[in-house]
Amino acid sequence: MAKQPMLKFVKISRDMPEKRGAETRKEDFDEIYAEFASAKAEEQASRCSQCGVPYCQSHCPLHNNIPDWLNLTATGRLEEAYAVSQATNTFPEICGRICPQDRLCEGNCVIEQSGHGTVTIGSVEKYITDTAWEKGWVKPASPAVERSESVGIIGAGPGGLAAADMLRRAGVQVTVYDRYDRGGGLLTYGIPGFKLEKEIVMRRMKQLEDGGVRFVMNCTVGEDMSFEEIRNQHDAVIVATGVYKSRDLTGPGAGAKGIVKAIDYLTASNRVANFGDTVPEYDSGELNANGKNVVVIGGGDTAMDCVRTAIRQGATSVKCLYRRDRANMPGSQRETQNAEEEGVQFEWLTAPKSFKGDPVSAVVVDRMRLGLPDASGRQSPEIIDGSEYDEPADIVIKALGFEAEELPTLWGAPELEVTRWGTIRAEFTSGRTALPGVYAVGDIVRGASLVVWAIRDGRDCAEHVLQDLDKQAVIAAE
């Protein structure tokens, strides 16, 4: 009888790739986790129980065929594992690094529920694709037949790039327009290098270019080109701009110098630390935490990125204010633990009341308690009377989330329908909007969400764009 390669979770304990020590990793912006060695990847993949109903797969937004590529990895069939992984995910090496697996696939692993510790799905996914790049298995698009139709995509973030890849592989002519000088969107300028090294994103950009995707960079729609011009140049247009408008603070002194937006702060850091760009606001200290008391307001993943960046910039102290407790924070618990190891102090159940000084010198903070549940079912934070105190701050970073920009106004397209939240109103799955031939995907439809959901939206939309183009071709031929 052949030896059973799987179901080894009883004999083999869960193990993660080695994590660099906090004192070492604080000194640079390199990724903090090492790569699995081949034997270790096979060992950890073999822990999978090959469930009849794989909850890891059903809780993955892309419905990745996780049990199959774990089995293939465990049996040394790595090129096949990559093919299975890539079949449902345009950027598996990125998802393996930045997906909140603890809330998705790994958090729903059956052996985790039985007390044996989850399969390290994300680390194996990263290993498979990194190996595929090293071995030359990752190929640019090479469509069997070129099509005459063209699609314009506004936004070079994960949703737009996923759609571009799918359409180009089908032979469609694809042009991507983006406001930045490099593609990738938040993958490039929002997420710090210690979570996602930028070479990982740039090699995907090159792969797309090598496959025939055309990029028009430094192009702000509504300024450098009109939305109508882009529509006129293409048979279909996909809007994948993401959401970049930062939620603001209120209260006395909220407009003081030294209170900055998380996106501005992270973009400046990524430009300097990862690309060696010159950023005047960084050099002046406006967007640089070196030698400063830093206060970050918010409890999501963006806040975690900010506090950990500030540590690496050489901040004197870094504190994170969040109005609920640790159990109710929206950010990844794994990221919170990493931040604590690196020296970040979390002030749970606190909220800013006002700000002193201009430039800012302190945040006046109210202590909170959790009261009755609100409409979402979460306990509402309530101010404890007379609990306020001053938190010294030389720079305050607002990480309160993002909202949609007013695209119909900015683009001169009032007929582009939006929801009451300002996101584009689009059909579920297909991404079709009220405008003929115009689609929308990712955060500009969902609101601020996960990279993996943007990838899913981009892939789904590309399939429907192809269906619509085929229908139009049949009608034109009649």
Automatic annotation (TrEMBL):
InterPro entries the UniProt entry points to: DPD_II, FAD/NAD-bd_sf, FAD/NAD-binding_dom, GltD-like, Helical_ferredxn
Residue ranges occupied by any Dihydroprymidine dehydrogenase domain in the UniProt entry: 25-136
MF annotations from Gene Ontology: 4 iron, 4 sulfur cluster binding; metal ion binding; oxidoreductase activity
Coiled-coil annotated spans: none
Pfam family, one: Fer4_20
Keyword annotations from UniProtKB, A to Z: 4Fe-4S, Iron, Iron-sulfur, Metal-binding, Oxidoreductase
Keyword Iron found: yes
Occurrences of domain FAD/NAD(P)-binding (ranges): 151-458
Keyword Iron-sulfur: yes
Protein name: Dihydropyrimidine dehydrogenase subunit A
UniProt organism field: Salipiger pallidus
